[in-house]
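Troubleshooting entry. The earlier prediction with adenosine-5'-diphosphate gave an output that would not parse, so I re-checked the input for stray whitespace and re-submitted. Clean input:
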Amino acid sequence: MKTTGFNMSPLMRLSAVPRIVPKRWLAALAGAVVAALLVPTAAGASELTLVDIEQAVDTLWVVVAGALVFLMHLGFTMLEAGFTRMKNAANICAKNMMNIAVGMIAYWAVGFPFMFGDGNSFLGYSGWFLSVTDADAASSFSSLDWAGVSISTKWFFQVVFAATAATIVSGAVAERTRFTGYLAYVVVLTAFIYPVVGHWVWGGGWLADLGFLDFAGSTVVHTVGGVAALVGAIVVGPRVGKYTNGRIRVIPGHSMPLAIAGVLVLWFGWLGFNAGSTLKAAGVDFASIVLTTNLAAAAGVVGALVISRVVYRKPDVGMLGNGGLAGLVAITAGCAFVDSWAAAVIGFVAGMIVVLSVVGIDRLRVDDPVGAVSVHAVCGIWGTLAIGLFGTAELTEGLGTAGLFYGGGLNQLGVQALGSLSTVAWVAITCLIVFYGIKYTIGLRVDRMHEVDGLDISEHGMWGYPESVAGSSYMGTPGNGAS
Amino acid sequence: MKTTGFNMSPLMRLSAVPRIVPKRWLAALAGAVVAALLVPTAAGASELTLVDIEQAVDTLWVVVAGALVFLMHLGFTMLEAGFTRMKNAANICAKNMMNIAVGMIAYWAVGFPFMFGDGNSFLGYSGWFLSVTDADAASSFSSLDWAGVSISTKWFFQVVFAATAATIVSGAVAERTRFTGYLAYVVVLTAFIYPVVGHWVWGGGWLADLGFLDFAGSTVVHTVGGVAALVGAIVVGPRVGKYTNGRIRVIPGHSMPLAIAGVLVLWFGWLGFNAGSTLKAAGVDFASIVLTTNLAAAAGVVGALVISRVVYRKPDVGMLGNGGLAGLVAITAGCAFVDSWAAAVIGFVAGMIVVLSVVGIDRLRVDDPVGAVSVHAVCGIWGTLAIGLFGTAELTEGLGTAGLFYGGGLNQLGVQALGSLSTVAWVAITCLIVFYGIKYTIGLRVDRMHEVDGLDISEHGMWGYPESVAGSSYMGTPGNGAS
Amino acid sequence: MKTTGFNMSPLMRLSAVPRIVPKRWLAALAGAVVAALLVPTAAGASELTLVDIEQAVDTLWVVVAGALVFLMHLGFTMLEAGFTRMKNAANICAKNMMNIAVGMIAYWAVGFPFMFGDGNSFLGYSGWFLSVTDADAASSFSSLDWAGVSISTKWFFQVVFAATAATIVSGAVAERTRFTGYLAYVVVLTAFIYPVVGHWVWGGGWLADLGFLDFAGSTVVHTVGGVAALVGAIVVGPRVGKYTNGRIRVIPGHSMPLAIAGVLVLWFGWLGFNAGSTLKAAGVDFASIVLTTNLAAAAGVVGALVISRVVYRKPDVGMLGNGGLAGLVAITAGCAFVDSWAAAVIGFVAGMIVVLSVVGIDRLRVDDPVGAVSVHAVCGIWGTLAIGLFGTAELTEGLGTAGLFYGGGLNQLGVQALGSLSTVAWVAITCLIVFYGIKYTIGLRVDRMHEVDGLDISEHGMWGYPESVAGSSYMGTPGNGAS
Amino acid sequence: MKKVEAIIRREMLERVRDALDKAGFHGLTISEVRGAGTQRGYTESYRGVRAAIMFRPKVKMELVVDDESVEKVISVICENAVTGEVGDGKIFVIPVEDAVRIRTQQKGQDAL
Amino acid sequence: MKKVEAIIRREMLERVRDALDKAGFHGLTISEVRGAGTQRGYTESYRGVRAAIMFRPKVKMELVVDDESVEKVISVICENAVTGEVGDGKIFVIPVEDAVRIRTQQKGQDAL
Amino acid sequence: MKKVEAIIRREMLERVRDALDKAGFHGLTISEVRGAGTQRGYTESYRGVRAAIMFRPKVKMELVVDDESVEKVISVICENAVTGEVGDGKIFVIPVEDAVRIRTQQKGQDAL
Ligand SMILES: Nc1ncnc2c1ncn2[C@@H]1O[C@H](COP(=O)(O)OP(=O)(O)O)[C@@H](O)[C@H]1O
Ligand SMILES: Nc1ncnc2c1ncn2[C@@H]1O[C@H](COP(=O)(O)OP(=O)(O)O)[C@@H](O)[C@H]1O
Ligand SMILES: Nc1ncnc2c1ncn2[C@@H]1O[C@H](COP(=O)(O)OP(=O)(O)O)[C@@H](O)[C@H]1O
């Protein structure tokens, strides 16, 4: 048999040297390969066990779901760029790119260890730089032992969540924030602020012990991101011209198609976000989570439509998108704990809340160009509390108590409120420190003239849309008469 | 062992309280979890059976394929927005958002029951609001019993199809249709018109009994959507300025990049649309469907290129996109029934048909800005008939007869024609009623002045591209001298 | 039992006629279906074997990964359109559409056979038009026998790679290349030039025999595409106005948001590109490849940021995107052979290299609007060599030797350099012939006036952005006073 | 020579341009402008905040013609740009002292 | 009649326009222009190559008014468009020989 | 004072602008326009329907200069905007009665 260098050439070698190898990604494969080589089509006898296959199925689902969540960063980029002005479009894209890049590095180095590493009930502290083998993972990340997938799989699924929490802020502070200041914030959030909350809830911390329920992160991801967005928006201040002469002025985003495309990408990614949070496919009806997630999103859009036709005369297109996202944020906590009709109700209410909240926050003179605070913080809290109302006895059995409407009394609602509140407090305090710290050191906000010129040209040296912003034929070589 | 509140914390509980639980998404999982806890890495003995794993694999494929189909709504949004003018771009996005949202609610409430619920050979009528457990699903949705995946999985895969059928219309009636009128249409189509055809073909209805073949919906989805688009375009009438002084005028779309990006997203989603229609992964070579689907799409692009270079001088970029979609629509019915060379032929012919059809329909003074009628109705019919020509004896065995070119005579072709014709008739008649009904009640078309101003500003109160359409600095606060 | 015509109606038939059928996509399914019909929920006894399920899981992963790679064509389209001017945006989209369409047909007909067909160590030559059954696949494509998935699955995963190699060129020769000339190039590259290198490395050719390592294609795909891009850019020459009066002039792309969105789509697709190259899911820790891939990409972005802040004053947004892609290209060869910290280093270095390379290539007066040569050729070579530095003994065991930094000496580095060099030489020579051949026959470059007008209008008869480029109201019907 | 500057509705451009072409006036320059006058903008809203859109889209046509042609040009434009609704636009006549054709450097009437 | 042509900063448009409106000048046409003067462009870079951006975005306002109103219009614009920084812009006064309202074909003063 | 209005090819803008700058004319305003003249548009097609594209993209430069500089400006533009092909563009000279620098309220020559 000829040895080849193709993709899986290791397998080739194995057939030539048929012994047990300790190779990470070939564990337990040797026999199967031999078999496959002997019997090319699917009739051979595999030496993989049922558990190997189960693990493969679980890994496949979690990796695919994680990839969908990764794509949410595209969704956020489009949404935020669409909701802001042309002169800042490249800057928002750059911030989102850096967010995922820097977030990945930070979460790999220390964030994941802080969150899932073994430690106390407030913080984990082991497994820096993921420097564990799968065999050792138990001793470093015991809070994730229940899931059978490899530590790489777990890290990937979690890192895209961490980056999501961070990226929520970039929209709220858009069009006026210094690039380096934003980078500093991202590092702190993904490395520390977010992992701490994650540890409390998912890493075996004190909120987990109390029976706080948050299936996929209405609190852990969205409330964290949304509160950070609120603090960021307050500390950085409103955009030039947003509130002048005592009036609230409209600064429309430059592309609703981009924003709505972003919403659809986010919705797509959210299927992985919620249903992938099982960290498992075999033996779990994760499709029921797909059902609740979709119904909540759909109802959120409808809720936003209804309220915006009642309150304003015409349905605001961006609000429809915000409504869908609101439904998704709200169902994230409870997607595995509520019935489908309840999912629709939770989403519908979230869609209505978000419209009113956007207007309310604007009235408070907090300038949030994309509605991040309303979508992620307000609806994240609503979704967290909703488990205390709609959680069924059957689905929460052994984890918490049924919600108020299912005869469980106020118990679970209280726990949910406590979890929300502690998260809000933690994030508010730490982010205040972070944003003020940045403000008085490397600087949080660009100069007024730079803001008027736009961040694309002032922070990056070129517009994101040079032809649209500056015309077709504006550019020359320096020294040729230009100064 | 510390109890945690993490995502899968139910599992934790199970190990502490090891008894059979009736929990929906944990069915049959208990043993496996215990095992996983004891033996963290992939060496333990699972108590999941082979059937559990098979179901997990099937569910995983159908959910992922369904997610790809969901993303087709992004593709349609981009395609339709790209093929229309800037002043209507946000409106088309809003319609597509509402389409998926309202369609999901309507199909959950009554559409799915009408389509797959038990009933007679014309219509199903059971399982409203999906209010069945998986155990009861057999008694409500027996036509789907053959697939082993859960009812949530089935619903999700089907709802994205229903929404696809509906969304086809939005492009054909773009730039002139009232937002509320469109919403009313979506409800009726996803709740009733589409499910009826679906019941005939996939829900155990009379066309299924006759041996009508439509693997993934050239008829059920695309002909339905395409004929509805035709009726819609006729009833709503052409855009202002499209046919004036006896001439056909060009109203170019505002962004070919957006449109072509939409085509690529649709192509991506179509892989799930066709190959996911197996509703099964284990034991099924669904990759052969991926092969036929890709070849038809590729050949469709080439077909459109060839014909457009022959007929016009220059290859129209949008037409290349339409050609690819035409190939995809045409192969949808036969993707599992034809050889790969036949797939290429079917796609190539579809690519040629669509170019001629777009021109022909324009000559008939039916204003279809995106070519929806040509792509979905005309090529949907072509694809349905093509099974009667190219279906191989082997692949259609037991379901129908081989096609004309495989010695099966005209039998299957006749059945296919009958199925197409009945579908066209049903949709044409019901949609005529619906669109005229809307026209004479809530209104189907916007005022002429609103149409000239654009639907973004007149229906939604703000342009989709404020800076591009209205300039950078056009906006003030009301009362400051503006009326 | 009622017979239905639904998607999987074949299954229905099987239960009525329970005998072994030779049907391609139903192989081995019969028993399972009967079981499923008897026991609708997941409690029945399947007759599928563990090997069947293993194959299903493997197929599922490879198909999904292939679909992600397919989506990279959307990413390339967006990236290239974003980095070029408005007047050429539709043309670049058309070229990318044709690229995938024509590439698919060519690779189906002859490319795949040349690459994986049985032949000699330089070229394969069997299995034209994929005309083999799975049973015969062994005799035609024995170099792929090690993978248990069906031949359709293998073709799909490979064809999207082939099209990727081809599409790299379209960006480098953008804004000035004749549409038909480009088509001719695509046919030759996907049908022959790329498959030859592929055969050497993955099809059992001489480089495979030497122990050359390229897990997912830094050499096979990216170096091939990048060198072809270099030759193309040189032969077609720089854009009008790019180098005038001895100065390098800036011709900015029209949309950074589009370009960065393209980068994120590419990153998403790359997860499938690298981790799917296992061609297998069961028993393989493909998630560790997801880990290395993400870290390299993230580090590439950071590397580009660092160097661009050092060299220029402001971080160029497009360069951040190029940095991420550079990291991805560089880790493609070694994603399964290096530790995670090494992945981060490889990516970081790639991100720095790409920034300097883009500037350097521009100084050499080679006009590459999107940086394709730097990203794909330069970083492809870097990534290939990096295995010779960072490959661990454990992960390369039996395939090659450990890298320099792991005590393996210069052996592997030498083999890697030889592989890179041979590929560069082969592609450079054949592409020179191809591009000069096109230049002196059907023509490679558009007329100067057509280039100034833009390729959209001159090659396709309409702008990609009619309203932005030409204004809202510029168009009339011919004969009405227009000439 | 005079420059006739007409601000018209965008949707009337083609008709006006064709009529001018038929009347023998081939040379003209257009640009996209926004205007307010008797016709005001809209008051709309965005994310719940009311906003005044101060201007309507219009197109400006500029034709430089010899003095005798001014009346003719005005009447052709008026006939073809009129809808009778507020917002049809205005025509202004501005003196031009000289004209040059860049290609040939011809001056005055010959440049047109 | 005169045409008052003002090149101002884009961010001052709303204020100027409101002030003109209050002063009774409702009719005007604006367009997006780019300019250079005492204030120059930027020198920036793209993909490592330095580039001069020659112009800054400005907005041009055109108002045709009767001769007596010219001073008033100029002073309203000056008051409201000024920031004191280089680049505030210029106003030019150009003679207009005639004006026509397309809708009614009124001429001269009545057309405004 | 005169306003020199030049309609030129977009691709010549940089050269013309640099030449003017070297000749001491720093103040100018440009805008994107479309034009027709001896050079006509294209007849193309979209989705199988023929369409006339009536105008070509051009750029309009406006410089207000004192009377003596007019000839100089014209000759600089002519030299640098010419390709010799139809469509090179036109220059028009229009009287300006007054100019104001908004920042300083300087009038006349001093405002330029
Ligand atoms: N005094 C003016 N100066 C400059 N442009 C004007 C003036 N008045 C009106 N316009 C332009 O003419 C357009 C139409 O004028 P308007 O008064 O609204 O309608 P009508 O001419 O039908 O009464 C305006 O939108 C504006 O662009
Ligand atoms: N001579 C001129 N002709 C035409 N437009 C001019 C002239 N000088 C200046 N401008 C316009 O006025 C704008 C502001 O002029 P500038 O000289 O930069 O500032 P300031 O008027 O404050 O000294 C320029 O950007 C340009 O659009
Ligand atoms: N009479 C005119 N009035 C206003 N603009 C004109 C006139 N004639 C030509 N132009 C402008 O000048 C441009 C070039 O004119 P054209 O006649 O095509 O070329 P050339 O000047 O080389 O003969 C036109 O596209 C148009 O913008």
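This one parsed fine. Residues 41 and 54 of chain F are 5 Å apart (CA to CA).
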